[in-house]
Write a structure and sequence with these properties.
CATH topology of the largest domain: Rossmann fold
CATH class of the largest domain: Alpha Beta
Structural class: alpha/beta
CATH superfamily of the largest domain: P-loop containing nucleotide triphosphate hydrolases
Largest sheet: 6 strands, mixed
Number of domains: 3
Strand content: 5-15%
Helix content: 55-70%
Strand order of the largest sheet: 3-5-6-7-4-8
Number of strands: 8
Distance between the termini: 71 Å
Shape: elongated
Order of helices and strands: HHHHHEEHHEHHEHEHEHHEHHEHHHH
CATH architecture of the largest domain: 3-Layer(aba) Sandwich
Amino acid sequence: MAGAFGSRLRELRKEGQVLQSRFAKICGISSAYLSDIERGKRNPPEDRVILLWAEHLNPSQAKEIGEELLELAAADRGSLRAGVERDAVAVETDGGTTAYQGENTQKKAAFLEYFCTDLTVLAREGQLDEAPERVRDFEAIFQATARMRRNSVVLIHSNGREINRVLHGLVCELGSTPGPLSGKRVCGLGYGSPSILAGVKYRGQLEERVDNLIRESHQAGDVLLFVPSLADLADLEAHTKGSLVVPALQNGDIQVITGATPAAMSYCKQVCPDLIGCFRKVRVGALDPEGVLKGIFFLRDRYATYHGVTYADDSLKAMVEAVESGDESECWQRALNLMDDVGARAKVEEWTGEISAEDVARTVGELEEAG
C-alpha cells in the first residue's frame, strides 16, 4: 500500500500530465526509484530534494506543493509498516544485507559509518602523519572553510600523494588548533571502506545511498567529508545524474574537502563542470628546502623505527641538499624516498651506528648509477 507522500506525488504528476519516465529524467533519478517512492516501497527523499521536485511539478505553485509534500513526507517517515523500508536502514553488500534498525536512524548513521572511515580516530591513534611544514596551507584551508557560502575546499597540486599528506596533516591539526573546523568529525569516503558504488543491484539504489549519506552528514552537524580526489566525486555525481551532490554542496547541507591534480580538474570539467563551482580552490604551494627539512625531521623517528636505524641530523640535511636541485614541486617526495632508500640499504647491509651524510652520499651515488 502506497504512503500518503507517494500517492500525492503520483496525483500531482498525473495532474500535470507528466509521464513517470519523463519526470524521473527531469529530476535526475531512475524511473524504478521514483516508482518505488510512489508505491511506498522507499523512504520519501530528503526535504531539499522534495522542494526541488515541487519546482519541477509546478513552478508557479512550487511553494504550496512543497509545503504539502513535506508535511506528508514527515508523516510517512514516522510510520513503519511491514515490508516497507523506512526507519529501518539496510545497506546491501556483496555478501548479503547488513541491517541497521531502530527508531532513530540519525543516531545510527548507518550509511555514514558503513561507507566512510573515521579519520579523526586514525589521527588520534597516530596512524596519520602530521605535516608541520604545511602551516600556511592549513591557514588557507581554515579561511576558506570559514565562509558562509561555498565553504567546501579542493586542494590543487601536481602530485596526488602530496595532496593526501596535506589532508592527513589537516586531520591531525584539527585536534589541537581552534578554528572553524574545530570539533569536526572527519569522515573519509573511499578510505578503505566499501565503495559506495560497489554492489549496486537495482536502479535507484545508488541514489538512495548517496541521499542517505548526505542526510546523515547534515543531521549530524559535525561531519566534514573527505574525498581523496575530486574526480571520484565527479564520477559519483555523474552516476546519480547530477541531482544530489551538487545541490547539497550549494545549499551547504554537506561540507567537503578534497584534492585534485590538473589532470583531475580537466576530467571534472568534462564530466561535471557544475561540481567545480561548488568548491573554493586552495593551491598547495611547493616547499622550500627549509620546509622539506622541517618535514623530514618530524618523520625521522617513524622511518628510523621501521628500518631499525637512526638518522643523524647531518644525514637529513644531506638528503635535502641532494634533492633541492630538481623540480621544486617534487622535492618533498624525493626527500622522503631518499630517507626510505637509505634506511632500507642500512637494514639490508646491516650498517652500524647512525646514518651519516657520507652514507647518504653513497646511496645517492649508487641510485644514480642504477639509473
